Predict the 3D structure of the following.
Amino acid sequence: MPYPQGLARSVGTPTGWKCLRVCVLCAFFVLGANATELVLGPPPWDLRPHVRWSLQTVATMYESSHPGVTVRVTPGLASFNATTVDAQDLGDIMFVPGTEFGRASILGILVERGLCLDLSANVQEPAFEKDDFYPNVWDSVTRDNRIWAVPLMVRSWGLAVDARKADATAFGEQVQSWQGLINSQSALVRDFNGDSIPDYTSMLCGMTPFTVWQCVFLDLGGDPSDAASLRPGTPAWEGALSVVNGLHSANPLFFDRLRLTRALELRRDAAVRFVHDDDAGRTSFQLHDGPENWKLVPVPGSGAIAPLDTTVLAIKPGPPDKEAAAWAFVRWLTSAAVLAELTPKFHLTPLRQSVVATINDPVTSFFAAQIERMRFQPPSGAANPDVEGLRASLNAIGSGDTHAKL
């Protein structure tokens, strides 16, 4: 859920606070009915104060529109393992992170363990208006032709160019392809001591190499649902690897991980950076002087892109009254009316097209437009070992060793 300024979304660079988002993505609701207290929690990780504040905001909204119902937010747990967690430790409503292709997902594991209610019939209720959602987002919660959760949030992303420091129009045209982004790096690095190793870059990536690899893999026609495609040696796999290496070679500082304080400093200096819609919906790219001097540019390529992450709402099987109460909350929270209220409050990117159509904010509209390009994966409890190995080796590039190579 969104925080006070972007409920449960990252707070700095696009990946710098991803662990913070996970705290909320896996938060859980325990719901009752009538005089029964509705408990938000326990989530799998300890909640930070502003995360709890945001969840409490939503809980209070629900209470105010449902007299007689009490919703309480509880502290989180120190650790969580979806493969071993007891059903009694799960809430009746679960805020679960989505799936990265080739990786095991919490939702997939919980589905396999019988800890998620089949919502296929629920979402077909006419009042729910399932067709109002972007159609591709349902792939993230569909398995075996059944729907196991309702999509709530997607972290959308793109590039931002500071028009005061770069020719935004020319740059936007150049980076329509991934090769164009590679070629652009020569103008974004500086070698101050003459050793041919860049000492400074005005490009702030903030994305993991694996995230970039996923997008290039998709852009080159790779199919993450096809085992014959998602393996080493295929054109899409190797081509995506070549682009990641090309970006690192053209700009050894491209993928460097930065401490938050340093990342915040560079946000003031960067001419170009990847941005996302989190943390007040936009402070990942909005500088102290606001977004008016920045031009937003779509992710390179003409094919599909990967979402940075997603949040979906699942329900734990239980007594009929508990399941009904849980569904009532999910239906309320994902309704067009509530999302329309939360969008300006938390600056999230709504997944209902009817809500997007009413938005006058060009920033939110930009991030919403990127959702149509996203490729979502069904929840799986099994990981692809080749993908896991690739992810580890790719992300080593961003360890701070500017000479790291695959």
